[in-house]
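#struct-pred

JT: dropping the chains for the assembly here, can someone run the whole complex?
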Amino acid sequence: MTPARAGTAAAALVLGVLGGLSLAAPGSLPRLGPFLDPAHGVFAVARTAELPAHALADIPHLGAPVEVRYDARGVPHIFAAGELDAIRALGYVVARDRLFQLELQARAGAGTLTELVGARALPLDQETRALGLPDAAERSLAALGDTTRGRRLIEAYADGVNAWIDQLARAQLPLEYRLLGRRPARWAPENALHLFNRMGWVLTQSDLERRKAAAAALVGPAAADFLYPVESPLQEPIQPSGLGAPRAGTEPVPEPGPPAPDTVLAMEPAGAPASDHALGSNNWAVGPRRSATGHALLAGDPHLELTLPSIWYEAHLVVPDSLDVHGVTIPGAPAIVIGFTRQLAWTFTNVEADLQDRWLEVVDDATRPARYRLDGTWRPLRTRVETYRGPGGAVLAVDTLRFTHRGPLTRGADGRWVSLRWTVLEAAPALDALAAAARAADARAWLATMRAWAAPPQNLLVADRAGHIALRSTGRFPRRPTARGDHYLRGDTSATDWAGDWTVAEMPQAQDPPQGFVASANQQPVDPAEFPRYLGAGWLSPWRALRINALLRSHDTVTVDDMRRFQTDPRSAAAERFVPAFLAAAAARAGSDTLARAAALLAEWNGEFTVDNRRAVLFEAAVDALQERLWDELAGDGTGSRRAVPRPALVLAWRLLAVPASKWWDHPSTSRVEDRDDVLAEALVAAYHAVRERHGDPAGDGWRWGAVRTVSIPHLLHLPGFGAGGLAVQGGSTTLNPVTAGGGFGASWRMVVELGDSVRAWGTYPGGQSGNPASRRYLDRLPLWVEGDLAPLTSPGTVGAVGESSAALTLRPAP
Amino acid sequence: MSRAFVLVALALAFAAGTWVGGWLGVVAVALAAPWLLRTLQPVTLGLGAAVAWLGLIAAADDGGSLGRLLSRLGGLFGVPGWALVVVAVLYAFLLAWSTARLAEGLRTR
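RK: done, full complex below.
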């Protein structure tokens, strides 16, 4: 072969390879040519990272032009002539900044993730559909009708999102779509319902019956009731009890007993931790009597899974003489979810109520049932065929779902058929209530509007300029003829079915209480000593509630800055109770040099989880070691691979501190009988060894809390390089700003509002307004969040009052 | 005609081609240019395409956005961010060179 021919052959080979890689995607990689193309490919993401100084767009059904001005923090201030126009504009600006997130979150609720990301999402989609969430969204949409306010809101939002999608230039395609080789789907109005259903799943999904049955299979039903108590052993309820202090339960502690018969349902998955370390949210408000300025103050920080971009998007909507609301929305929601107006401010925490019950059904066929037994007759099961498709439309799987009159029917690991009833599947999101509440004149009117809120139930906190503060655990709480909902119920009788809902008057609540403040942190809402009706079991630990109540009780002239500092307060109510117990046990079991050394180090701790603290690490390790040892009866088959996890584990451990000879303290695997101090001392020594081994000398930087416990915020798709990791923040697993091992949960939004002659607000969230990872607005809020600081939230009333804006957008009615 | 002038002219042509036709625009320009200037070597065409893509990539920057993007993409693919620019420029070079070389070979058969 001549050199010339060889050169031609080489060129043909190179061109063939490049052309092949550019025309067809190899594996999961994008097509090479379109991806690298600097005009329209991945590099164009850098060119479109920031908003243009001026932009103009047309939106269908817009009644009048809308002006949008972005401030220096990237917040769009939307000035519209009507509320529906404002919602159209909100859909447009959210899509402009968060298009991929919009679609991903809606698909997660619709169970259609496979159509976007492929077969790897199939298990998640199957779970979503098996729970009946898409089925419920379809029924909610039908129930909304064609002319209701709620329907008009979700359609207006869709107008805005789709206007952006329709005008999307190739260069503006978000990076994630390029990596997946996909184009955005048009936004359907019902996507808002899918989004809220997904939020309902995140906030209310519970497997209390299964957990309790698993525990009963190990230690008997009485002990299982202790491990998931209906009554939290430490009461600091949301509805103030009037005691002015926490109340400790004094009921006898059941000992671990023999396994209960017929408790063979699935146990905890392999590798489950011994402790729950459950997280939640905080909110509180102080009345004028306890604030330094004489005005009501409100603070809120909902804790959720942290992602980039954030679940929240900040916006300000103005409609003259009708609406002026500033706060955060969830991409896909046609309203400001948490925020403030010129009159009032509000925020939420989740009510950790039991909203799911499960019935063991009698069916006509163990493998493919068509009927179920009820009150002596056979009833047909409703069926629904679910088809899962890949990005190209190919069918990946087909499932047939079955429903009883209660809800979806699934087969348990032991072969039994279990139906689920869940308020989220029966309650359309009250989006119109949320939108209407933003027009309320005062706290009382706001609460009245939010009566319609059904699911997921929230501890609604509101404060107004007149100085009123109020909190109500609002949502649909079922009345149970069985009195309890934490055990599997008989399905062959309708006598076990729910019988209506709690009335609003029955819901836990407080308005302008004598103590001068209200607070919630996902704890049991009302002390059962006052109102002994079942609302749930296995409540979250009340440590945060104890701490915030202690702070508020000890400050009678609270300032805005106090409210901000409280949100990242470094002290723990759990540490205040456990450190003395560890030290007393070490003194009682003196004799070991290691124990004395560990106790001396723990005694040096000032009780604070600050970034530079060098002793908090020992306490956290000791608490973990304590729970590993204390709950060893729950280790299942002896291999340690399966176990029940109590909840609230650390509060139960605290309860047991008062019962030093309880059988719970004894290790079943040893011949001697251990008591409380033995186990506490063991745990402290084990923690000392573990921390020394992992982090070196106690005087070294390895023991710095900020080096040991950090927060990581992954990208929505968990793309390496697109998240933020190693963030040293103030807080421990039981502080108001909870930071747990692995650190992917936390305060997703922090807000403080002063309701004075004018309303002033401050806030931030971890991330930024833009979903474009090349934008300076992708992560620009993170440093402030890490420091526990807040930015002023300015709310100009008119376009002219915006001042210097970073970008302007004019939206016109489409011709 | 100076070599530098030719290179700049080619780069502009490739940039325009890319803007209009994406990566296929590079192929089109690499095929068309030799008809206008028969003395063009495939390597020169490759260089022109590489310069054009380098310029377009640099022009995509908006206040540091390119650096942020490269940093994140580098993390995603497990390579330094600048390596992606090298890959893109090399891709453009090879695409233009191989197209021109193949066309030249076929023309002279």
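JT: nice. Chain B has one domain: 3-107. The first helix of chain B runs from residue 3 to 21.
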